[in-house]
Amino acid sequence: MYPWTVMETIVCPMGGGATRLYSALTQTRGSSPLPLPLSQQPDNTNLDPAFCQEQKGSPACPPDPAELLRQCEEALGDRPHRLHRKFTHLNDGDSAPSSPIRVMQWNILAQALGEGLDSFVQCPPEALSWSRRKYLILEEILTYRPHILCLQEVDHYYDTLQPVLAGLGYSSNFCPKPWSPCLDVEGNNGPDGCALFFDQSRYEFLDSVSIRLTAIRIPTNQVAVVTMLRCRSTGRCVCVAVTHLKARSGWEWLRSAQGSDLLRQLQTLVQKHVGAPSSDIPLLICGDFNAIPTEEVYRRFAASPLGLDSAYKKLSQDGLTEPEYTTWKIRPTGECCSTLDYIWYSQHTLRVDAVLDMPTEEQIGPNRLPSFSYPSDHLSLVCDFSFKEEE
Asked: What is the average pLDDT value for the chain, to the nearest integer?
């Protein structure tokens, strides 16, 4: 049994966002200052007015994300064009959902692993520097502005991602791996782990737990963060999990055991909250599963009594097939192009309204990922969900 922890809610007063972005991004390890303009106009359009008024004498007014995105693009200067991706809308002309839930799943590539152990032989060393990658990572997040953000391989949580995203109104929780491989890299920035962020103007925090996944009751090096939220506009609850399962061939049995452990933990959590407004609490489970769709852990999630489905199958013609790839890289052992990342959702209580498509092979380029255009070897997954009507 793991203790439940209450996350600290950080409220950003109006103004100062560009200064915060500049400070957080230029004072991190191994980076050099880049000039950022300080002008901005805060944007209140997506805030919950009642929630803002409840704050201690100051409305929760994050800086304008569009302005911060522009600053990231300016800081990146003459880099190649970013990957152009479009949303595929699935609601067949229905009216837009009143309370959309935009979810981003992304293995951002730990800085220590990118520069050290992962050996991306076709990627120029300059493209792997944190002084560039931090802007590319934030650019990706700011472009799609998810309400819920699930990240893996985070090793710059405290010095970059948490302070910058807190300035945009996100609250978060981070769970490092017990024996992170990042610690074996000279000059590392600490252990990597999973991080879960949510827009606190849209969601009320209820509960959160950090889980060390087990296999045959033995603790492993993989973790998960599970958070229970309540939508401020609808009052409905949603349970969100982020995880990163064991990598590499030969460990399929361990991934299956870790997945089964996470499913058990989620079932226990949902049962704990049966007194919530809805006894059938929707689940969103995001992660780098390090497993292709034919693996046992994938089949366990697909056949789970929790009624889960994989959102990215919606991109296929038949609605039954995963994308051809979510990661594409070249290492000394050869080229790897496979589907390892997923957004699972409760198909009986949530509806998929839109899915961000995958870039083409031509867009990714012959040297694959990461690159000057994209900071990770994994592509982000972004989906828009909405609550189905309660029966």
From this structure: 84
